[in-house]
Amino acid sequence: MIKVEDLSYQYETKGNPVLNGISLEIQKGAYVGVIGPNGCGKTTFVRHLNGLLTPTAGEVWVEGMNTRDTAVVQEIRQRVGMVFQNPDNQIVGMSVEEDVAFGPGNLRLPPLEIRKRVEESLAVVGMEKYAQRPPHNLSSGEKQLVAIAGVLAMRPECIVLDEPTTYLDPSARERVLEVVAGLNTQGMTIVHVTHDMDEIAQADEVVVLHEGRIALRGRPSEVFTRVEWLRGLGVGIPRVTEVLWRLRQGGVDVRTDIFALEDACLELAALIRPRTG
Question: Which residues pair with 208 in a beta bridge?
Fold first, then answer.
């Protein structure tokens, strides 16, 4: 769905390129996690995926459309929606339904179609009961769900999430992640930037950025087992993997390519022999 060719980007106020020669492809329906230390270029990278930024060098293609082409950039942004870190920066309406209707309204869709999209999008994120609520009365987690609904109302094929759970408490974080996982199960392409490795342990692919380049990419089982290397970059690993890795360092023969708590419990239970006699 998305093809990035030798992408480089340099801000006018910075001397060195923030991105330097990134190339990769994102397949339709994939769940891709993007991680890396602070300042590695994660946000800059994903803002190229829907034309918010234009490459200094290289190309970004979305379903055959080049993000440099100003004639198609609005269509690109309909197909690739963005959810930012701070939900307060995305809320524009005086009510939840007005906010979700903002994007479709800009497309000049018929009122009945806008209404349909608003109702369907709020239902997907479980916020239909809040349609008349002023957004400023919502919690941060509820605001982020409204932001996701606003993106869904544009009927995208891909959603890019740039650290969407940073300002959320654990229960709100879990709710947002459940919605995102559900969207991917239904065929939505997901690109998810995060500092919390547990959030992307079930992704199809993990891309590690370092100093504006791709340092490593692969399945979570291939990336997160590189514990010492990731630590050297200043990147963490899923909590379950951390526990198993420490056990292995202590001489316990356990797998370290496990990310789910239930699977870890089964792995450890297999090591315990029942007492006899």
Answer: 35, 216
In the chain, the number of structural domains is: 2
Can you list the residues of the chain whose pLDDT is less than 50?
Answer: 276-277
* Residue 137 shares a structural domain with residue 242: no
154 lies in the same domain as 275: no
Amino acid at 5: E
Domain of residue 125 covers 2-237
Give this prediction's pTM. 0.92
Please, what is the average pLDDT of the chain? 92
Same domain, 204 and 244: no
Dihedrals φ, ψ of 250, to 5°? -90, 5
Q: Are residues 226 and 245 in the same domain?
A: no
pLDDT at 15: 75
Sheet architecture: strand order including 205-210 = 80-83, 158-162, 189-193, 31-35, 205-210, 213-218
- Say whether both 118 and 248 belong to one domain: no
Residue 80 has a pLDDT of: 97
What residue ranges in the chain does DSSP mark as E strands? 2-9, 19-26, 31-35, 57-62, 65-66, 80-83, 158-162, 189-193, 205-210, 213-218
Contact 133, 180 (CB under 8 A): no
